[in-house]
Amino acid sequence: MRLLSVNIGVPRANPWKKLAATGIDKRPVDGPVAVSAPGPKGTGAVGLAGDRVYDVRAHGGTDQAVYAYAREDLDGWEPEFGRALSNGVFGENLTTAGLDVNGALIGERWRIGAEVVLEVATPRIPCATFQGWLERAGWIKRFTQAAVPGAYLRVIEPGEIRAGDAVEIVHRPGHDVSVALVFRAMTLEPELLPRLLTADALPDEEKELAHRRTI
Questions:
Q1: Closest by alpha carbon to 123, among 180, 206, 192?
Q2: Residue 15: its pLDDT value, please?
Q3: Looking at the predicted structure, is the pLDDT value of residue 213 above 90?
Q4: In this model, does residue 177 exceed pLDDT 70?
Q5: Of 72, 73, 92, which is closest to residue 24 (Cα–Cα)?
Q6: What is the Cα–Cα distance from 160 to 166, expressed in whole angstroms?
Q7: Residues 122-139: what's their mean pLDDT?
Q8: Strand ranges in 98-166 using DSSP code E only, listed in sequence order
């Protein structure tokens, strides 16, 4: 399990949400990238130095510090797109190889390289910017149906990472709440929401949603 690339956003106009800019255009970078906890949502800060988000109400902050997507899942989308999909094209900070990102458990921890530890927090939910960036009508619906969303991660131990770093799973919690399960519960299968309550590391917003479902 390893990092194929570390991807940093290039600011560009965002007509899809009528915002001044978006950082979804992520591109691989050479050399080490500093990783640190960004603090609460609302400032635009994320976990990787040189990157940021512009829709500060919906993105960034502690529970969305770093976004990971598996190269294997990008490869699986290529026939549908009819073209090669480059690392970073889904807006991911980390493109991984050999790691089951969607099968990862909420609260699972990954050591990347010698220093950094990240914790799986929540799945990515598709938005209008994602659909507009890929220029595919109906993409939000298609992405949701496929339920291979990739994972947002928290920064537990800061440090530096770079392409080629090994990824090691250093902790797996005792529940069965995976990234894919949370995504399905939050989108097309709300009847699954009560199952999420066993995942202590789930963000508060998702926990509140699951609690409301159980009342």
A1: 180
A2: 92
A3: no
A4: yes
A5: 92
A6: 13
A7: 96
A8: 109-112, 116-123, 151-157, 159-161
Angle between helix 204-214 and helix 179-186 axes, rounded to 10 deg: 60
Residue whose pair of structure tokens reads 């994602």 in the numeric block: 130
pTM of the model: 0.95
Residue type, 152: Y
Instruction: Tell me the C-alpha distance between 203 and 175, whole Å.
Output: 16
CA atoms within 13 A of residue 29's CA, in its CB half-sphere:
20
Residue 87's CB: how many other CB atoms inside 10 A? 21
C-alpha span between 118 and 112 (Å, rounded)? 8
Cβ atoms of 23 and 54 within 8 Å: the answer is: yes
Q: What share of the chain in percent tops pLDDT 70?
A: 100
Question: By C-alpha distance, which of 13, 56, 6 is closest to 30?
Answer: 6
d(CA 101, CA 135): 25
- For residue 35, the model assigns a pLDDT of 98
